[in-house]
Write a structure and sequence with these properties.
Mean pLDDT: 86
Helix content: under 10%
Structural class: mainly beta
Distance between the termini: 54 Å
Number of strands: 13
Number of helices: 1
Shape: globular
Radius of gyration: 22 Å
Strand content: over 45%
Strand order of the largest sheet: 1-2-3-4-5-6-7-8-9-10-11-12-13
Oligomer: single chain
Amino acid sequence: TAFGALAADLTHASTNDRTGHTYNGQKLRLTYAKILPLIDTNITLASYRYSSNGYYEPADAFLLRDRSWHGAALERQRSRSVISASQALPRGYGSFALSASTQSYRGRSNSDTEYMLSYNNQLGRVSVGASASRVRNLMTGRWDNRFMLSLSMPWGDRSRSPQLSTTYTHDRDTQSLQASLAGSAGEDNQYRYNIFASLNDASGSGSSGTAGFSGTWAAPYASLGASTSIGRGY
């Protein structure tokens, strides 16, 4: 429309638990988006409404069926509202985005909320990203601050050089550093690989690390993949 783009969709879900009980429910989603061409600003307002008690997202449905859940409370969203805006800066200065979201849960009177500010730019061959968010924890009711910095660049001067990516995250109780090296090989880039590692430092539980490798082969009639990882305790 002249005022922006409108969209609506309705999702029906039917979930069976291990006792033979069936849950049926629907989710209604409404979305509004608008681009302001003079200043190249993209504004999106999305509201998600879970209209019935029997609706389960796929991840929640598997938790419901998993006996290892040990009867813990399953937090199911009742409604979720998101508003976001992105702004492209003059050439060479990147772009930034703002977002705010809130979601409520069935059986709970309170909700959790998140505010986020992010910035991205391409400095030569290096992609830089930074974000700061403030999150209200549903369980504790307290506000937590989280900061993230990411860098990505090609590892070499060739057109098919692997991509090196690093991400540092810091919040109230933990900080983590993640790195990965991903690339492709073969005449048609049919072989893809990813080497990754992470280091986490949490107050109260100390430091732990994870490392691993994954690869895929786009064969003529199928795509084959494998991965392996190792960390403390597994």
